[in-house]
Write a structure and sequence with these properties.
Blueprint (H helix, E strand, L loop, with lengths): L2 H8 L1 E5 L2 E8 L24 H12 L8 E5 L5 H8 L3 E5 L3 H13 L21 E5 L5 H16 L3 E6 L10 E8 L13 E7 L1
Parallel strand pairs: 3-4, 3-5, 5-6
Antiparallel strand pairs: 1-2, 6-8, 7-8
């Protein structure tokens, strides 16, 4: 069974609670995602919505002028939620995701929401990508190893004239000294506080 067929058969296409105009294929207890193995056993982050991505998506829905008419890259896209929200707000959006199952999910979610969200390759150890006005990076500071690569990459993007917005619920490795908080939103999360409705995710501008 292909990843796309597995996702269609075992995940549920459901509205995002805080963004009912967006539907995503989402895991549930019966999904048994362990059957959809990847060569490097990557965690299936793409199967849920995360706090930082939810904050960015809500921000774009509430303030479409932030992305309308701009070329937006959803970096570390996971389910594609942020890129889909940007596209619905009038952006020309693309997504970068290294997990092959995540890439399959992005294609299905984009189709389900009636938007175009082409996949692009981005090397965070390399130069800033060309052809973008804004990078939206949700939940990319989830561990110190990734953060050590991610911050210099985003700084290179900013130096190249690309605006950078980061979504995060104030995780330990978030480089708050380099960021300016733009807005905060109530979010759910698949992590340790998934049952706490009052959890907050914030949108930050890289400075």
């Amino acid at each position: 069974m292909s990843p796309a067929d597995f996702i269609r058969a075992n995940l549920r296409l459901e509205p995002v609670p805080s963004l009912p105009g967006i539907r995503l294929y989402t895991a549930h207890p019966g999904s048994r995602l362990s059957r959809l193995a990847t060569p490097d056993d990557a965690a299936p982050y793409w199967a849920w919505q995360w706090a930082g991505g939810l904050a960015l998506a809500q921000h774009f829905a509430a303030h479409p002028d932030v992305v309308a008419g701009r070329r937006v890259l959803d970096l570390g896209a996971g389910s594609g939620l942020v890129g889909i929200a940007a596209a619905k707000a009038g952006a020309t959006a693309s997504a970068a995701e290294i997990d092959p199952n995540g890439r399959a999910t992005i294609a299905l979610n984009a189709e389900a929401n009636g938007v175009m969200l082409p996949l692009v390759k981005v090397d965070i150890a390399g130069n800033a990508p060309e052809g973008f006005d804004l990078i939206a990076a949700g939940d990319v500071f989830y561990n110190p190893e990734v953060g050590k690569l991610m911050l210099p990459f985003l700084q290179r993007c900013l130096a190249a004239g690309i605006a950078v917005l980061v979504g995060d619920p104030e995780r330990r490795d978030l480089p708050v000294e380099r960021l300016e908080r733009v807005a905060s939103y109530a979010v759910g999360d698949v992590g340790d506080a998934r049952d706490l409705a009052e959890r907050v995710g914030s949108v930050y501008r890289l400075r």
